[in-house]
Design a protein that fits this description.
The structure is a homodimer.
Chain A: E1 8-17, E2 37-45, E3 53-59, H1 64-72, H2 83-88, H3 90-99, H4 111-132, H5 136-141, H6 145-150, H7 163-174, H8 177-187, E4 189-197, H9 203-215, E5 220-224, H10 229-243, E6 248-252, H11 259-269, E7 274-278, H12 286-296, E8 300-303, H13 310-318, E9 324-325, H14 334-348, H15 361-375, E10 385-387, E11 401-402, E12 405-406, H16 420-426, H17 432-436, H18 445-457
Parallel strand pairs in A: 4-5, 4-10, 5-6, 6-7, 7-8, 8-9
Antiparallel strand pairs in A: 1-2, 2-3, 4-12, 11-12
Helix pairs in contact in A: 1-4, 3-4, 4-14, 7-14, 8-15, 9-10, 11-12, 13-14
Pfam families (chains A, B): MR_MLE_C (PF13378), MR_MLE_N (PF02746)
Keywords (chains A, B): Lyase, Magnesium, Metal-binding
Cofactor (chains A, B): Mg(2+)
Chain lengths: ~475, ~475
């Protein structure tokens, strides 16, 4: 190490998997049995007593090792960098990662490689926020607009958003930021909950959890739909009657439908007053979403958790294809690309209601919405962050929900760090949980069929109970 | 093994890399120094004396190990399957792979995981064609229309193409197939060549290779553009003067431009009469391509080598965004998804001119165009397959070009199999070539800068000379 410049010394990766499939938490029409997993990354430095940067890509089980391999393939871009320089300008690293001409072929800017870039970039932001002594939302909200514009890659965006327009939006966004910060710290940011609505839950559990959500202060719930129309009609009726007429109820098809089917199905549920229909079709289908939106109004159309990058978000907005933009903290190329998406949404006047849940997605994405409120859109009207009460107990700085609102984090960083004992226990396949698991992971359909009875009966699985804060 | 049912016994993978960056073959505005690579897969069976199935995903160097890991992650879907069943209906395996609910999260249907699916599915088709004793194009062209329709996944397509419409297209396509087969076997399928036009070549080399292309019988060449407008104007002038007014000249920007820039740049090159402009902007930008196409006519717009799946191709056609559909044999989910794209293109009356080059892409994709000619579109008018004279010497059944035409393969299979000695020599990092290479792979920008002089001087690199058939 030349002189006293602190450097990134290692990019350590971990394959962490939670056996969530055993309780049917997280079950939807496209994902019947997810094992929520993280391809987890720690940036280590030689700064004496200095913090580490934590980040992760979220997956749902099988293939998490491929995601880990992709993060590993990026390490040469990171190791040896000056900690000070990379934290002062994460955008340079982000552009270097996206611009690696050989790795780019594996996307470009989509899928496994792009999520790996997001994990590394987010870990840098975690490091930067820790070194700044601020929660990430605050670091972003207090940053100079010019600097924020420099964090965005405008390539393939300028027909919808130029750097000059972005700068205007950010300058306007700062007016009144101090007041909004105070309001945020006091009251938090509105949340909605998906916990009642998993497809694998029976009507009693749905009723109980829906009523509980309202009692807990949530003003919106969400139901998974799309597997069977009769079931969905019944479940929507059950849920509507549990929450009453004034609580918003969204439905989420997780990409199951073709365009005509999405229109037909959504209309069939219209009598229960769904607020939005989420992922009605392929996340790649901009024109399909536009056709659906025209046909199902006043039901709103929402998508984004699987939208691979800013270029597809741009088109969803250009084509008037969505009413709600659902960013995901771990799908695109990290904070930098999500800044681009937040700016695009602001430019088109479309509210951002993040996707969260899984493992750690709530922890991350709250920071982006809070920045958006304080220093960009300036409002929480018609804006909610998804909340799911799973797996928060594994994080050092877990989200805190009060009266249906996310409490603003105050600890420095991006809230990304998992507890060391959770990392050790759920590392796959060598961690204590998996090593002791007689079934191992079920890698084949036959395995799953064989294990089915045991799993479906496992109502009190180790991780099924989220921390209900 | 129960009874005498032959099974798939192994999915073996190989990380194969060729040091093509050393001769600047393959250099373009987005990919200055590719090392053409294959994440290669061999399906082994216990059928006595039976063939293996070969396939691969194409990458350009770094990250090929991630692509290999993704193929490895699919093996449990393949090992143990009945060889006869999987060959009689590759569509079932294809749907199982795409439908793996946990792996799906890593795409969905895009990037590393999807290319891995393509490699495995293509290996199955190679196996099926070998067992049928036919080259793949012929197996497809002689298949029953009903069976072909069953090979296609219509999910997210039916607003543009229904199974019934596909069946009609295939039934109509068969009329006159015998005559076209005879014509194809006699005269081959038209090719165009990109060999003269790499960005790293100087004007003399461009002139020499362009004139040579015409002398060899090609009626179309292609130039890489997009790095510097003045250079491109000069190079287009040089190339046009070398080939004369009657040979078509396409230009390829490899995604470098934003929409306005693409329009401006293409118009600046219009005086040289480019036939098409390829990848003018992000492959994800359907609306951007549509805007560019409206603005640059009569120059045609072509894209597809990085289009991740059939859903984006669908939209390019729905939005009148392209004049030319460029399928790639190894980007989407294999033969099955390319069947969908060929059917979509036929439905919209848009010619398909495949992307090829790299390593082995010519060998694969010729089969798809030949099927399209014999049994679907029924014509080669305004249709050409890209040809690049690199690395064919590594294949057991390499493409044969005569008078600017691809000769129809007659050997059974998908022409995917590499020579065993090439696999051994170029396996990374342990193969004889890489083990002996003092520079290793250059994994960092610093390494590349350090090695730059040596590489740029290496005009007679081991693999720079393609077999000019």
């Amino acid at each position: 190490m030349p002189g006293r410049t602190a450097r990134v010394t290692a990019v350590d990766t971990y394959d962490i998997r939670f056996p969530t499939s055993r309780g049917l938490d997280g079950s939807d029409a496209m994902n019947p049995d997810p094992d929520y997993s993280a391809a987890y990354v720690v940036l280590r430095t030689d700064a004496e007593g200095g913090p580490e940067g934590h980040g992760f890509a979220f997956t749902i089980g099988r293939g998490n090792e491929v995601q880990v391999a992709a993060i590993h393939a990026l390490r040469h871009h990171v190791v040896g960098r000056s900690v000070e320089e990379v934290c002062a300008d994460p955008g340079t690293l982000y552009r270097d990662l996206v611009g690696d001409s050989q790795l780019r072929w594996l996307g470009p800017e989509k899928g496994v490689l792009h999520m790996a870039i997001g994990a590394v970039v987010n870990a840098v932001w975690d490091l930067a926020a820790k070194r700044a002594g601020k929660p990430l939302w605050r670091l972003l909200a207090e940053a100079e607009p010019e600097w924020l514009v420099g964090q965005v890659d405008f390539r393939h965006l300028t027909d919808a958003l130029t750097p000059g327009e972005a700068l205007d939006l950010l300058r306007r966004g700062r007016r009144g930021a101090a007041e909004r910060t105070a309001r945020l710290l006091e009251g938090g940011y509105p949340a909605y909950t998906t916990s009642p609505g998993w497809l694998g839950y029976d009507d009693d559990k749905l009723t109980r959890l829906a009523a509980r959500a309202v009692a807990d202060g949530f003003r919106q719930i969400k139901l998974k739909v799309g597997a069977d129309l009769d079931d969905d009609v019944r479940r929507c009726r059950v849920a509507r009657s549990a929450v009453g007429p004034d609580v918003r109820m969204a439905v989420d098809a997780n990409q199951r439908w073709d365009v005509a089917e999405a229109i037909r199905w959504t209309r069939a549920l219209a009598e229960f007053g769904p607020y939005w229909v989420e992922e009605p079709t392929s996340p790649d289908d901009v024109l399909g979403h536009a056709a659906i939106r025209r046909a199902v109004a006043p039901v709103k159309v929402a998508t984004g958790e699987h939208v691979p990058n800013r270029i597809v978000f741009k088109q969803l907005l250009q084509a008037d294809a969505v009413d709600i933009v659902q960013i995901d903290a771990a799908r695109v190329g990290g904070v930098n690309e999500n800044l681009a998406v937040l700016l695009l949404a602001a430019r088109y006047g479309v509210p951002v209601c993040p996707h969260a849940g899984g493992v750690g997605l709530c922890e991350l994405v709250q920071h982006l919405s809070m920045f958006d409120y304080v220093a960009l859109s300036g409002t929480t009207e018609d804006r909610v962050i998804e909340y799911v009460d799973h797996l928060h107990e594994h994080f050092l700085d877990p989200v805190v929900i009060r009266e249906g609102h996310y409490t603003a984090p105050t600890a420095p960083g991006f809230s990304a760090a998992m507890r060391p004992e959770s990392i050790a226990r759920y590392t796959y396949p060598g961690g204590a949980f998996w090593a002791a698991d007689p079934g191992g992971t079920r890698n084949t359909a036959e395995d799953r069929a064989r294990d089915g009875t045991r799993e479906r009966d496992g109502t009190a699985s180790e991780t099924a109970k989220g921390r209900a804060v």
